[in-house]
């Protein structure tokens, strides 16, 4: 069944909302790493359930799975460190803001994937809107900037490898399932080796929040990765980075941060870019 592009972009926007929500949970948890481990444990369980119902990925996908998992480990490490240094409204836009153009460049170099003029315009508009959001954030400390930019590079790595991987398998969900298994098993093992008792205690007291966040994380990532199998990866990545807008809304209405005219203008630019992508 062919899914209309407008529906695909709508689903990616929902995945962006899910991403902003579970990242806010990690940031504002007393134990960010343990919260992340719990979220990825849910992904591990979902991956196992899917893997038992689907054929294994083709051998050509193994390298992409391993590479994607490694970049996700780097992403998890840098993400939790950046949240220790910076607040949510700063760390999240910095990390996600560098991704659209980096993914577009990586797709051009490694996937031989170019964009149509209107799609390129959409990516550039989204990137400009994100830059407008980041102008104030560039005043933060250098270590925080480096951690967040490193997080963005890691996102580019697993996004590009994931997009290449889902295109080598007959069923994209099979690739998603095994990537969830690899990434979830790695971070769960790290907790069991370094702080097993604290991890178990945290899971007991945060079961509902961790489970809900895990479903959001896994579901949102699965949608985004599936979308790269039917759409240009740069266009999908640019659309998913509208999660920065959702993060801004969360910052204002949940965390009581001030909403400025700069954010409003940036929001309008980003949504114009998403509209260009949807109608390209």
UniProtKB/TrEMBL annotation:
Major location (coarse): membrane
Keywords assigned: Cell inner membrane, Cell membrane, Lipid A biosynthesis, Lipid biosynthesis, Lipid metabolism, Lipopolysaccharide biosynthesis, Membrane, Transmembrane, Transmembrane helix, Transport
Source domain of life: Bacteria
Bilayer topology annotation: Multi-pass membrane protein
Transmembrane found in the keyword field: yes
Location relative to the cell: Cell membrane
UniProt xrefs under SUPFAM superfamilies: Multidrug resistance efflux transporter EmrE (SSF103481)
GO biological process, one term: lipid A biosynthetic process
Domain EamA span(s) in chain numbering: 9-134, 143-275
Parts of the chain that traverse the membrane: 6-25, 37-55, 61-79, 91-111, 117-135, 147-169, 175-194, 206-227, 233-254, 261-279
Entry's Gene Ontology molecular function annotations: transmembrane transporter activity
Signal peptide (UniProt feature, chain positions): none
GO cellular component term of the entry, any: plasma membrane
Pfam families per UniProt: EamA
Annotated family: Belongs to the drug/metabolite transporter (DMT) superfamily. Small multidrug resistance (SMR) (TC 2.A.7.1) family.
Protein name (record): EamA-like transporter family protein
Organism listed in the record: Microbulbifer donghaiensis
């Amino acid at each position: 069944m062919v899914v209309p592009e407008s529906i695909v972009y709508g689903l990616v926007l929902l995945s962006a909302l899910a991403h902003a929500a579970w990242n806010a949970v990690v940031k504002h948890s007393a134990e960010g790493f343990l919260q992340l481990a719990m979220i990825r444990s849910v992904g591990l369980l979902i991956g196992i359930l899917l893997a038992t119902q689907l054929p294994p990925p083709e051998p050509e996908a193994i390298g992409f799975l391993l590479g994607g998992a490694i970049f996700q480990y780097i992403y998890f490490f840098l993400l939790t460190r950046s949240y220790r240094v910076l607040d949510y409204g700063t760390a999240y836009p910095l990390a996600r803001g560098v991704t659209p153009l980096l993914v577009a460049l990586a797709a051009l170099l490694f996937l031989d994937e170019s964009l149509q003029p209107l799609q390129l315009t959409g990516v550039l508009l989204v990137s400009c809107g994100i830059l407008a959001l980041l102008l104030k954030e560039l005043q933060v400390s250098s270590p925080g900037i480096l951690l967040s930019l490193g997080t963005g590079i890691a996102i580019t790595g697993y996004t590009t490898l994931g997009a290449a991987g889902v295109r080598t398998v007959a069923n994209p969900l099979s690739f998603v399932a095994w990537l969830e298994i690899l990434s979830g098993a790695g971070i769960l093992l790290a907790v069991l080796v370094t702080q097993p008792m604290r991890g178990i205690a945290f899971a007991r007291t945060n079961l509902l929040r961790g489970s809900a966040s895990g479903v959001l994380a896994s579901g949102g990532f699965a949608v985004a990765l599936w979308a790269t199998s039917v759409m240009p990866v740069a266009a999908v990545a640019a659309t998913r980075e509208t999660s920065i807008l959702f993060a801004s809304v969360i910052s204002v209405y949940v965390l009581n941060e001030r909403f400025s005219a700069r954010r409003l203008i940036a929001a309008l630019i980003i949504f114009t870019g998403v509209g260009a992508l949807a109608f390209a």
